[in-house]
Specification:
By secondary structure, the protein is mainly beta. It is 8% helix and 45% strand. It has four helices and 33 strands. The strands form eight sheets. The chain has a five-stranded mixed beta sheet, with no helix packed on it. Strands 2-33-32-31 form a four-stranded antiparallel beta sheet, with no helix packed on it. It has a four-stranded antiparallel beta sheet with strand order 3-4-5-6, with no helix packed on it. The longest helix has 14 residues. It is globular and about 50 Å long.
Amino acid sequence: METGGAGALHFHGDEEIIEVVELGPPGPDDLANEMEDVDFAEEAAEGADEQAWETEEEEEEGVQDGMEAQDDSEVTFSEHSASVFCVSLDPKTNTLAVTGGEDDKAFVWRLSDGERLFECSGHKDSVTCAGFSHDSTYVATGDMSGLIKVWQVDTKKEIWSFEVGDLEWMEWHPQAHVLLAGTADGSSWMWKIPSGDCKTFPGPSCPATCGRILPDGKRAVVGYEDGTVRIWDLKQGSSLHVLKGPDGHQGPLTCVASNKDGSLVMTGSVDCHAKLVNSATGKVVCVFKMESAASKPPAGEAEEAESNSVESLGFCNVMPLAAVGYLDGTLAIYDLSTQSLRQRCQHESGIVQLLWEDSSAVVYTCSLDGAVRLWDARSGKMISEYRGHSAEILDFAVNKDASIVVTTSGDHQAKVFCVQRPDR
């Protein structure tokens, strides 16, 4: 996760053409809510021995402490011996998960009972990337050192491996047995699996920090540490568009996403900007800006205000909405038709990742406080909250019919939550 943010830098592009949407600091109501949400869990843990002497104020802390013990999950997978960094579900049946961790291990396991199917063995560094091919035939695992392995799911056998430079991200093609990955030297790699036929896409001489294959399967958008963005033609191996200078970001890219038909791309950065880009023309349509709270930080919070960044973003499939999650705990819902802020949902702690439900305007978030939350993007209201982890959530996945959420955490566990709602 990128945390070394540069605060919100103001956009110096062509102001007449590009709409810039400012997201100001929280109003009094937001601040009041934040005060209500202050997390006393740590203090409570330290004061556990003195519970017999609790004052009224401390009793409230005790309630928060009790919440840490709350476990709403149905299944817990506990075979990792360190932080679990990534999770992916098999797209075909949504019955299997693959998780990778700091223990240099990856496992494929069953969601229904947490039963391990097989270990993806042989990694020599933290497994930070893992995912199934579009048809669930293969599963790929990648570690930080750049060792990528592909396994055939039904035979549980390794069928391919390759070593690149330090790995930043990895993604399967949406329609083919093709794997794409980005590395710390700025290259993006593409392989046919299992033949291993290979193509490289040279970027600038800095890490390719995030990437996404567009829905047409013919192009990919890649973001880089120097703030530039490239849209690549996968067949030709050439870059169709390069966004740099005022069109790029003023800090490293943290995330990229596209809408359902691939016509729009959104890019997020530690500069606290989210940019909406027309993927056909490579032109910036709009800039969503988080106004820096650093100008007048509350006492003692200057450093925290400075380190805000965009951590995750995504498009709604059923309405013209986009969601942006920030390290300061803000979930912003933007209306793409009016290019304006529609809702602002405040979290107690930083957002790690967000995902939209496939067929409704519901956003799922996971955060550093270890909770998963569901939000109605139209009203900005929280629908429900699920807890069970004793440390931050590092990654999560939602199944196709939005009935199950699978989370991974710094507490060495992965958990399965049933999130079916009675109103559906």
